[in-house]
Amino acid sequence: MLNSVFLLVLVLAALMAASFVFARRKAKATVVAAGEGAGLIFHSQPGYYGWLAGIVSGLAALMALVAGANLSLNPWMTLTLMMVVGLAGSYFAASRVSAEFRARTYVEFFIKTLLVTCSLIAVFTTVGIILSLVFESFRFFQEVSFLDFLTGLQWSPQTAMRSDQVGQSGAFGAIPVFTGTFLIMAIAIVVAAPIGLLIAIYLSEYAEKRTRKIVKPVIEILAGVPTVVYGFFALMTVGPAIRALAETMGFSVPTQSAITAGLVMGIMIIPFVSSLSDDVINAVPQSMRDGSYALGATKSETMTKVVFAGALPGIIGALLLAVSRAIGETMIVVLAAGRAANLTGNPFEAVTTVTVQIVALLTGDQEFDSAKTLAAFALGLMLFIITLVLNFIALIIVRRYRARYE
Amino acid sequence: MPENNSIHASEYALKRLNKRHMRERRFKMAGLGAIFVAVFALIWLMSSILGSGYKAFYTHSMTMDIELTESLLDPQKLREPDKLRKGNFRLIIQNSLYARFPDVTDRKARRELFDIVSSSGAPNLIRQMVYQNPDLVGQTLTIKVPTSDHVDQLLKGNIDRNVKEERRKVSDRQIAWVDELIASGEIKAGFNTCFFFCADSQDAELAGIMGAFIGSLMTLFITALIAIPIGIGAAIWLDEFAPRNKLVDFIEININNLAAVPSIIFGVLGLAIFINFFGMPRSAPIVGGLVLGLRALPTVIIATRATLMAVPQSIRDGALSVGASHIQAVFHHKLPQAGPGILTGSIIAMAQALGETAPLLMVGMVAYLTEIPDGVTDPATVLPVQIFIWAGNAERAWIEKTSAAIILLLLVLFLINGFAIWLRNKLEKRW
Q: Alpha-carbon distance B410 to A113, whole Å?
């Protein structure tokens, strides 16, 4: 299959290149034949006639390919059809070469169309995400009521093998899953927000240029570490360390716990918070700082009472983005938080999150009509909506905030 | 300080000033402390992974005299590779071990003796040799075979010899034999080539990252093919040709939002659209690449737009003023100026894609595969997913492997990002 695709691309490229060369030569020959100075009355440069022929032949050949596939012709027939139609297209384009023919306009129209298509693909991706989530969630909510999903206190998506099995009825109450998600997110924010903010403040107000030049990239390294690495770190190093620490203090904590996942996730989003707050703090005009200093305030007073107050909306926006990041984070919680849905607010217990459940329900073999797999799409939809709303609010806040100082 | 009676020098005022200065110092210390915490976290992360991972780069192998007994492997003397392949090579290895330790006769002891070498690795190695060269049958070879992961772990000092025998993965007898073999130089440490050039395996001593590495390359190739051209095209349109209206505002907001959508959602999209709707193969790099391509698309668009915006308008205006068309002004003049920045942005986006795990779990690239994939439609896995799969094994040997794979992944990411930064410093123009 791969070879045939490769062959098709090769044929198409060869066809287009040949058309380009053919039409450009023809255009050049026409100019020469028209005599001295004729180049000036030609609407387009010879190259554009070539480009046009290449595009026309390529599009014609692609249409032939689609037709061939729909009529289920055999591959060689399709290939021949492509060649014939493509060459016809290129001959047609080349036959139009004349001083009045606006080849460049057509080529540029084609390029613009291509650029618009590129932008639309980003939109189609969103549409695709929404459609697939909504469609499958709709099927899920036909089996499980929406209210039960939103307000149910028990989550055990295993559907019964036998009808008389006890406790295996498949409960889809999402509250425990969401409490777990928010618990871990809260721990992560409690870790990342003060540390990230203080780093941003120190680097922008206190640090010398040299210190900043060293520390900033080092903090950035934390942002570049793949999340699966953080997950492994949480599982193998931080989890056992917390357990050992708890044991010396006389109580027991499982290796997989909300605190482990939250702590490591907090470390992960430190650079995110610090770089966003850095931008925000730097956007506060210097005149506000100068005014504060002029009144005799110290640096820390200026920072906490003037700059921080001025930057507050921006900082809240940055923190909302961090929250959305923490809620959507997957690998750390998959490895370090656990799979059992506990309805608890205790950070020293194992909890589960939306993303963990999506992974648990959608990896491995699955059939696409059981409530169990469809539940993953419902969770996905909730996740998408929550992060979307958070991002949206954050973007609006940040934009308004910027406008205030510009 | 000179004595005076002004209120600014009263005892109370000085005390207050002192307090304020104390607070100032505390605040500064808190900032330093925050940096210290972040740097400490980084060092802790790196050292814990380096500390457990470096040992996977070497391994122990045992040099054995192996008699390829004709009566066992090829009694009919046909020397047909396909028949030879089915021979009992386990027995061959066992025989040569028994010959090395003739006084071991007890059944249980003999089983323990065989456990010194890799139980599937050693026979398979010889099987492959005989398959490729049937004339070896009947000869006695001196070759190196991998030891079992327990022996390897024992020799790396990860198994405590002082623990009671029944709580240890290796028995006292095995320890004695291994010590003897070490003393005689039959077991030696060496560079772990298999870790680099083997595919995944159920046996820790035979598992390598080659399969995942090739899978990563293929996936990234598809990702680049999707994200870079489409991303650059979209950025050019938005920057230069898009009219200012509600629809375009919507597209821009949409792209910004897409960049912040959790990556696992893209995996769900891939599963629902590419696999279920279009019927593309599960676990294949083509689907993984498509998903990561869409994931990286907003990143590439945003990076490209930022560079395009940094190019001064005068360049475009100059081109327009001498009669270039809008397209010509952009493609012939503006785009080349932005080239280095776009390249850097694209490389960084690809580095991010290389570290993605969650969306690939959704499209099934998490399968256990012992073969190196041949094409983009073959089942494959990628480096981060391989790390995830290995991270599920709690045994010491696997932790070592996982850490080593992480070291390699981080190294690759470091090199890619470093290259991008170097490129930016070298080529970027400041206006």
A: 40
